[in-house]
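DM from R.C. (forwarded with permission)

"hey, sorry to bug you on a friday — could you get me a structure for this? deadline for the figure draft is monday and I only need the backbone to look sensible"
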Amino acid sequence: MYLVIQRLNFKKQCLMSIRFVRFIIVLFCFVAFKDPLKNNENISENLLETSTPKDSVPFPKKLVQFKSIPENPVFTGTGENTWDKNIRERGYILKEGDTYHMWYTGFTDESTSLSLGYASSSDGILWKRYADNPIYNQNWTEDMMVLKVDGTYHMFAEGKGDIAHRLSSADGIQWTDHGSLDIHNSNGSPLSDGPYGTPTVWFENNTWYLFYERNDLGIWLATSTDLNIWTNVQDDPVIDMGPELYDQFGLAVNQIIKYNGWYYAYYHGTSFEDLSEWSTNVAASKDLVHWKKYDQNPIMGNNTSSGILVEEGTQFRLYTMHDKVAVHVPLN
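My reply, with the result:
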């Protein structure tokens, strides 16, 4: 009788163990596979979109991986005795509908004043110079960028001595200069004497965000609500030189874009103390103040710099504009 009871107890314990194991298996399946389609989509999106782990700052492949096209360069100085025999950094490209607009700086030699030219294209490869170039030569204008807000084109450019100034236009051809930018420290005091160049502006929620460099030694950020007074967010750079080698001796932002809730700064940097060669690099931020550099910078080297991203459907092209214009398309 005792042996029979023991066997019954053993079978009962085994049955309970089997039921417990079944419960654990069911629970695991519910947690892991309650929305398998969604999980698969997330996995696929992660594999296709990002080149960094999911828990770090995202740098989607479409924003950082490019290859050059055989037609490069697609635009250069004329090489002849014209006002734009040579062109300089930074030109800027803005696509509206089926038209690519390009503004560029031209000059004959280093002793001549820099003037502003315009060219257009239907495919971004073959460019036609505007017949009445230069479109602006009233004062020194170079290293410009353009954005369109509420029907008005706003250009931010370097003037002589690397002092940033602003111009505006209704058509992108006839420009009015509004003078040098009035930048103040975070406490409201005037910015100290010296250059403040390579102005790059982002506009969002009725606020203008100005990224500028001082002797290429760092990137500062100032904001404005009226385009007249700009106030530093902080009086230290928001993007520092180094410690990486590729930007240890200088850097300047060329463009800000927003993608999937993140801001991306395309900037050129140099690893040469004599500033003889520059590269194209990327950094990302959630708030425009705190930036993380892409750990595989530079995305373009060998003096291929002044990068501008142009949206092409669901992809992007990267144009580099120093000291000739080249096109780089998605690697895949």
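R.C.: lifesaver. The chain has two domains: 2-49, 69-330.
me: no worries. The chain is about 15% helix and 40% strand.
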